[in-house]
Specification:
Oligomer: single chain
Structural class: alpha+beta
Shape: globular
Strand content: 15-25%
Strand order of the largest sheet: 5-4-3-6-8-7
Largest sheet: 6 strands, antiparallel
Mean pLDDT: 92
Distance between the termini: 32 Å
Order of helices and strands: HHHHHEEEEEHHEHHEHE
Length: 269
């Protein structure tokens, strides 16, 4: 790539990385474990107990000293929240306004700058969503269909630029990496996917073992941030975790010792 590998720390050692990567490896979804994964989720979804548990997805609390929330959510935000739902029926033949997608990406660019107190010649860029220590370990990639398969681009948030890092990726490679199980229809019906990866070292070098937790927290924050912005732009989304960790990481061309695919957001109409 033309840019450095998203700038990871080079002058500090993260002694905990070995333990974190070993734990992360044990939690990966791999082809050998996917069958039991689908059997477990399938049995749960088709059981009475599963339906009962899903219908009671809240905590029972004592019914005293309550405060009723009597406030209105602003109209545009309310619309985006109501529109945001998991869509599983995309149609690539429908007209798609790519501008809305680009607006969502631009919503992740820095909104303010600050001088570092240790050296006022160093400027820190802060994005609009929370990040422990302002380290931003989550990176965004854009996977878009073409006539010859898919193109993969890395979104540089500091410059607002898309860097093409792979061209003409075969449909089969995308299916085998991002679709666990027999149903691979998403690859053929969506207008693309946002692939969110995590550079663990960014947070672990500062926070140690807790850095793993902080990076995962940010992964959820960025997913929700993008989902709401896309809903506001009338773009349907599906947050997706049923991908193979190793194959997905290979798809974005990452070194699994430094960076792994953490989440996928399919989008379209």
């Amino acid at each position: 790539m033309a840019i450095e590998k998203y700038i990871t720390p080079h002058s500090f050692d993260a002694f905990e990385m070995k333990d974190i990567l070993e734990f992360h490896d044990r939690t990966k979804l791999k082809p050998i474990s996917s069958l039991s994964f689908f059997m477990r989720t399938g049995l749960y979804m088709d059981s009475v107990r599963g339906a009962e548990e899903t219908s009671r997805n809240y905590k029972a609390t004592p019914f005293y000293d309550i405060e009723r929330l009597n406030v209105n959510v602003p109209e545009r935000l309310c619309k985006a929240i109501k529109q945001r739902r998991s869509c599983r029926s995309f149609e690539r033949s429908k007209p798609f306004n790519r501008t809305g997608l680009l607006r969502a990406l631009m919503s992740c660019t820095p909104t303010r700058k600050a001088q570092a107190f240790v050296d006022d010649s160093i400027y820190l860029n802060f994005r609009p969503y929370p990040s422990p220590g302002g380290l931003y370990p989550v990176e965004i990639h854009l996977l878009e269909p073409t006539d010859n398969g898919f193109d993969l681009k890395y979104f540089n948030p500091n410059t607002g630029v898309l860097h093409k890092i792979r061209s003409d990726i075969s449909v089969t490679e995308v299916e085998n990496a991002l679709c666990v199980g027999a149903d691979k229809s998403l690859v053929h019906t969506t207008h693309g996917a946002l692939l969110l990866s995590v550079l663990w070292e960014r947070t672990v070098v500062k926070y140690g073992i807790a850095g793993y937790r902080f990076a995962l927290i940010e992964l959820g924050i960025v997913s929700q941030h993008l989902s709401l912005i896309l809903a506001d732009q009338d773009i349907e989304t599906l947050n997706w975790g049923a991908f193979y960790d190793d194959k997905g990481t290979d798809l974005i061309g990452a070194d699994p010792c430094l960076e792994t695919l953490g989440s996928v957001i399919w989008y379209g109409k």
